[in-house]
Amino acid sequence: MARITVVDPKTANPETKELLEGVQQALGATPNFIRVLANSPSALRAFLGLHGIATSGSLDAQTRERIALAVAEQNGCQYCVSAHTAIGRRAGLDNAEMLKNRLGQSTDDKAEAAIQLAKSLVENVGEVSDSELEAARRAGHNDAEIIEIITHVALNVFTNLLAKATHIDIDFPKVTLGAAA
Q1: 80 to 114, 153, 156, 160: CA distances (angstroms)
Q2: Measuring CA to CA, how many Å separate 135 from each of 41, 91, 101, 117?
Q3: pLDDT tens readout for residues 32-57
Q4: 0.85 exceeded by the pTM?
Q5: Could you state, in order of their start, the residue ranges of all structural domains in the chain?
Q6: Which fold does the domain 61-166 belong to in CATH?
Q7: What value does the mean pLDDT take over residues 9-24?
C-alpha cells in the first residue's frame, strides 16, 4: 500500500488534473507513479518536462529502456523493473534481452556500453573513470549520447527513489527482482 496519497484525477485540483489528463492522453493510462508524483504539481511538471526533453534526444527507445531496467534492478526497485519490462516490451525488447539488461549486459555492443556506463554511474555516484567513458566512446557513443545516458540514469534513480520511498502499488505486470541474477 502506498505511503503517499495516490491522486485521483477526478478529484484533483485544476492544475494537477490538467497534468494528469495530459499523461492519460499521451500514454493511454496514468500510472500510479505519476499519480503519486502529482501530489506536487511542481514536481510532476519538472519530471514531465525533463522526461520529455530526455526522450527527444538521440538515444533510441530500446537503449533508454535497457538503461532503465539496469538501473532499476541495481537499485532494487520492483515497481520500476515491472514498469520498464512492460515499456521495454512495447519498445521491441524481448524477455531474454531484458534479463540481460538487468544484469548489465546486452546482445548489442553499443547498448551494452551504455548499460555498463549507467551501472557505473549509479554504483560510483557519478565518479566514473576515464576508461569507462572511453569504453562508451569506443562502442560508438558521442559526447551528446554520454550526456543523455547520464540524464537517463538521473531520471531513473529519481523514479526508483520515489517508488521505493512511497511504496507505490505496482500497476504493471509484476516482475520479480533478482530474477536476472
Answers
A1: 18, 13, 8, 6
A2: 39, 25, 17, 8
A3: 999 999 999 999 999 999 999 999 99
A4: yes
A5: 14-55, 61-166
A6: AhpD-like (1.20.1290)
A7: 94
